[in-house]
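Record type: monomer structure entry
Structure origin: computed from sequence
Chain ID: A
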Amino acid sequence: MRYLPANSKRRLRGFTMLELLIVIAIIAILIALLLPAVQQARENARRVQCQNNLVQLGVALQHYNQTFSVLPPGCVNDVGPVLADGQGYRIGWIAQILPFIGQDGLWHQINFIDPARSFMSSEEKASLDEAIELWNQLESGEITKEQAVEMQNGMNPNQNRAIGSGYDITQGKPKPRDLAGRITSTTLSLDLLQCPSSSQVNSAISCYAGVHNSVEQPIDVDGDGLLYLNSSESLESVPDGASNTLLLGEHGSGPFGSVWIFGDRGTLRNMGDAEGFGFLRIMNYDPATGEMDDTRNMTEAERADYKLTQQMRVGTFGSAHTLHVHFLLADGSVRGIRKTMSQDVLQKLASRKDGQLVSASEF
């Protein structure tokens, strides 16, 4: 057996500092090269999911059209225009197609007589009814304010809770509250309405909206899109043709509307917008007044006109995707339209009846 001599000149050596820095630099370069590819792959997956959401909504709208021979109204309300003040009936197109996307249970929980009462528990409904009854007695003079407060602080003997609990009848007629909170509970989430690329993921709002009008105007009965106030358009008789008319699209920018069961600027959008297509509108928010502009130097009349203008504004489409905004056409196909697309072409596609046909090569 041979042994290495103790004084052998063979010795082990590690990396020098320079070699270590070179290795680290190479690894950093590889990561920098791979990271965009990974992010792009993830965005492609999110984009495909977003397109699939629109496809499913399109299938539901087609089934609704086959059943009733018309598309659902974009919004149902007795008067227009529909403002962003939360007033009125305003039931929207999404609530009406729930049975056609396998959401019968969710559809049955919507109160189609008073939508603001949707998703309320029996205890919540009882408390609201009790509070309204006390308020009616107070308004009619049957009881005094002190008696009303005393009665509201009393206990309901049948349910072991305060009468009209949670509602202050001295501040006006009690109204249902926190509908968004009830919708965002885990049992009521509707993932189909959420674009996975959007930073505004919230199950109470929809990332997809119906095409109301080709130019910016309040939501009313004269929209030239396929979904507008009290609309009754049919997919079989689109004047400009189903393959040349947009039906739904993504919207990911302000101004935001209310929850998805309503037909306001949260679920209906215009194509024309002076701020540009696909970009977030930068608003001048004044923290002193809570308004989008400084209204402190306005007269009361000017301030009222300003608030009305803000409530009537609908807004345009947009998305969190890098290059495209996805749209569903009336024929059921989904297209990614470039954010740099000509506004003129977009308005032609949004209108169902302008007679201006757009070739496939244009978009």
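Annotation 1: Helices lie at 17-68, 93-96, 104-108, 122-140, 145-152, 179-183, 300-312, 343-350.
Annotation 2: The two ends are 82 Å apart (CA to CA).
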